[in-house]
Design brief:
Number of helices: 7
Pfam family, one: Ribosomal_L10
CATH architecture of one domain: 2-Layer Sandwich
Structural class: alpha+beta
Distance between the termini: 148 Å
Number of strands: 5
Protein name: Large ribosomal subunit protein uL10m
CATH class of one domain: Alpha Beta
Keywords: Mitochondrion, Ribonucleoprotein, Ribosomal protein, Transit peptide
Order of helices and strands: HHEHEHEHEEHH
Radius of gyration: 47 Å
CATH superfamily of one domain: Ribosomal protein L10, N-terminal RNA-binding domain
Family: Belongs to the universal ribosomal protein uL10 family.
Main location: mitochondrion
Helix content: 40-55%
Strand order of the largest sheet: 2-3-1-4-5
Length: about 250
């Protein structure tokens, strides 16, 4: 008879969880292993070894025209300027960048932004390849047709976001310390004048030393002649002026 709506069984069986595992891994039979090994497919060897075959021509990817233009600009910057300074560029407001460019332009120093992907291939094939370790991260180039190292350091002193890493001045690669030492040197005209004065001083001293003996001998002979003339006339000889040794 059907159960009444208000009656429930005292015991209910409910199956929970995953199903029972009915298959386990079983090692392949030894005879089957031998059969699989014997029937394994072996591809035939090529008649000509691959190393003896001609290499396939590699398809060269043409460079982008814009990349070639940028590389040409990098080459011109290194060829036409006597001072190329490599600096690390940190993020700074646009107004500060404009002011920095303005102060540097007063000393004929230009600011160049080039990607490392453009600069590194150009430098690797030129005489400036020793500058490659400096191009890591985001860099900026300060170029000038004159060696304005002192003015550049004075402007960069007020811009902490730009850190000088190194420079190439007159085809000579310098570190930051080398650039600072170069800035302390006197101008070229003053250095040339000092060198010319030092070189002219030695010949003048040599000439005076060579003429010292003859001048002293001439003074002694004049004194002797005066004494002889005074003895003949009977008048006292005039005292000779004291001789000063010329250095």
């Amino acid at each position: 008879s059907p159960l009444s709506p208000g009656w429930l069984p005292a015991l209910q069986l409910v199956r929970r969880g995953s199903k029972a595992v009915t298959r386990h891994w079983k090692a392949m039979h030894f005879q089957r292993q031998k059969l699989m090994a014997v029937t394994e497919y072996l591809p035939p060897r090529p008649a000509v070894p691959p190393s003896c075959l001609p290499r396939a021509e590699e398809t060269r990817q043409e460079d982008d025209g814009y990349a070639r233009v940028l590389r040409r600009q990098v080459e011109e910057a290194f060829r036409e300027n006597r001072m190329i300074a490599v600096c690390q560029y940190n993020s700074m407001p646009g107004e500060d960048v404009v002011m920095m460019k303005h102060y540097l332009r007063k000393h004929n120093i230009e600011v160049k932004f080039f990607l490392n992907e453009i600069v590194r291939p150009v430098l690797s094939q030129s005489k400036y390849k020793n500058l490659l370790p400096l191009f890591v991260g985001r860099n900026v180039l300060l170029v000038s047709r004159e060696t304005k190292a002192k003015e550049m350091l004075r402007v960069l002193k007020g811009v902490p976001q730009i850190n000088l890493l190194g420079a190439c001045i007159d085809d000579t690669i310098l570190s930051r310390k080398g650039v600072e030492n170069f800035a302390r040197l006197p101008p070229l005209e003053a250095a040339q004048g000092q060198t010319a004065g030092a070189l002219a001083l030695l010949p003048s001293q040599t000439s005076s030393l060579l003429q010292r003996g003859s001048v002293y001998l001439t003074a002694l002979l004049d004194r002797h002649i005066q004494q002889l003339q005074a003895a003949e006339t009977g008048s006292p000889a005039e005292p000779s002026p004291p001789q000063t040794s010329s250095e």
